[in-house]
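Action item from last meeting closed. Structure (106 res):
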Protein backbone atom coordinates (compact mmCIF):
# COMPACT_ATOMS: atom_id res chain seq x y z
CA UNK A 1 0.00 0.00 0.00
CA UNK A 2 1.24 3.50 -0.80
CA UNK A 3 1.16 6.27 1.78
CA UNK A 4 2.76 9.51 2.89
CA UNK A 5 1.63 8.90 6.49
CA UNK A 6 4.85 8.28 8.44
CA UNK A 7 3.14 6.09 11.05
CA UNK A 8 2.88 3.32 8.40
CA UNK A 9 6.33 3.66 6.82
CA UNK A 10 7.96 0.75 8.68
CA UNK A 11 5.20 -1.75 8.00
CA UNK A 12 5.58 -4.65 5.59
CA UNK A 13 4.31 -4.12 2.02
CA UNK A 14 4.14 -0.34 2.42
CA UNK A 15 5.71 2.11 0.03
CA UNK A 16 6.32 5.35 1.88
CA UNK A 17 6.39 8.61 -0.06
CA UNK A 18 7.71 11.63 1.84
CA UNK A 19 5.31 14.57 1.75
CA UNK A 20 8.19 16.75 0.57
CA UNK A 21 8.24 14.87 -2.77
CA UNK A 22 6.54 16.38 -5.79
CA UNK A 23 4.01 14.24 -7.63
CA UNK A 24 6.51 13.49 -10.41
CA UNK A 25 9.25 12.61 -7.90
CA UNK A 26 6.82 10.31 -6.05
CA UNK A 27 5.88 8.55 -9.29
CA UNK A 28 9.55 8.15 -10.22
CA UNK A 29 10.31 6.60 -6.80
CA UNK A 30 7.37 4.25 -7.09
CA UNK A 31 8.21 3.14 -10.61
CA UNK A 32 11.86 2.65 -9.81
CA UNK A 33 10.99 0.52 -6.77
CA UNK A 34 8.24 -1.66 -8.22
CA UNK A 35 8.72 -1.64 -11.96
CA UNK A 36 12.42 -2.21 -12.37
CA UNK A 37 11.97 -4.09 -15.62
CA UNK A 38 9.80 -2.98 -18.51
CA UNK A 39 8.06 -6.37 -18.77
CA UNK A 40 6.56 -5.74 -15.33
CA UNK A 41 4.40 -3.00 -16.83
CA UNK A 42 1.04 -4.67 -17.26
CA UNK A 43 -1.67 -2.20 -18.17
CA UNK A 44 -5.19 -3.60 -18.00
CA UNK A 45 -4.32 -6.16 -15.36
CA UNK A 46 -6.42 -4.71 -12.53
CA UNK A 47 -9.74 -2.88 -12.43
CA UNK A 48 -9.36 0.84 -11.78
CA UNK A 49 -12.51 0.82 -9.63
CA UNK A 50 -12.19 -2.24 -7.38
CA UNK A 51 -8.62 -3.46 -8.02
CA UNK A 52 -9.80 -6.94 -9.05
CA UNK A 53 -7.81 -8.85 -11.67
CA UNK A 54 -9.33 -8.43 -15.13
CA UNK A 55 -10.35 -11.33 -17.36
CA UNK A 56 -9.86 -11.41 -21.11
CA UNK A 57 -13.27 -11.89 -22.78
CA UNK A 58 -14.57 -12.68 -26.23
CA UNK A 59 -15.13 -9.54 -28.27
CA UNK A 60 -18.80 -10.37 -28.79
CA UNK A 61 -19.46 -10.12 -25.03
CA UNK A 62 -18.50 -6.44 -25.16
CA UNK A 63 -20.69 -5.58 -28.18
CA UNK A 64 -23.53 -3.78 -26.36
CA UNK A 65 -21.48 -2.66 -23.37
CA UNK A 66 -19.01 -0.34 -25.10
CA UNK A 67 -19.49 2.45 -27.65
CA UNK A 68 -19.99 1.20 -31.20
CA UNK A 69 -16.79 2.77 -32.56
CA UNK A 70 -14.80 1.13 -29.73
CA UNK A 71 -16.30 -2.26 -30.51
CA UNK A 72 -15.41 -1.85 -34.19
CA UNK A 73 -11.91 -0.47 -33.50
CA UNK A 74 -10.54 -2.93 -30.94
CA UNK A 75 -10.12 -6.70 -30.92
CA UNK A 76 -9.42 -7.44 -27.24
CA UNK A 77 -11.64 -6.60 -24.31
CA UNK A 78 -11.32 -7.23 -20.59
CA UNK A 79 -13.96 -7.65 -17.90
CA UNK A 80 -13.80 -7.00 -14.19
CA UNK A 81 -15.62 -9.98 -12.65
CA UNK A 82 -16.30 -7.95 -9.49
CA UNK A 83 -17.93 -4.75 -10.79
CA UNK A 84 -18.61 -5.71 -14.43
CA UNK A 85 -16.68 -2.82 -15.97
CA UNK A 86 -15.30 -3.42 -19.49
CA UNK A 87 -11.80 -2.28 -20.51
CA UNK A 88 -9.86 -2.14 -23.78
CA UNK A 89 -6.37 -1.00 -24.76
CA UNK A 90 -7.15 2.42 -26.15
CA UNK A 91 -4.60 5.05 -27.06
CA UNK A 92 -4.34 6.08 -23.42
CA UNK A 93 -2.52 2.83 -22.61
CA UNK A 94 0.22 3.53 -25.16
CA UNK A 95 0.46 7.13 -23.94
CA UNK A 96 0.90 5.99 -20.33
CA UNK A 97 3.60 3.49 -21.29
CA UNK A 98 5.37 6.10 -23.42
CA UNK A 99 5.35 8.56 -20.50
CA UNK A 100 6.73 5.96 -18.11
CA UNK A 101 9.49 4.97 -20.54
CA UNK A 102 10.39 8.63 -21.08
CA UNK A 103 11.26 8.90 -17.38
CA UNK A 104 14.32 6.76 -18.17
CA UNK A 105 14.02 4.64 -15.06
CA UNK A 106 15.16 1.43 -16.74
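Sequence:
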Amino acid sequence: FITSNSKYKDRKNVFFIPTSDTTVKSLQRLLKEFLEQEENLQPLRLCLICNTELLSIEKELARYRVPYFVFKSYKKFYLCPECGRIYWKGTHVNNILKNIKSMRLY
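Note appended to the action item: The mean pLDDT is 80.
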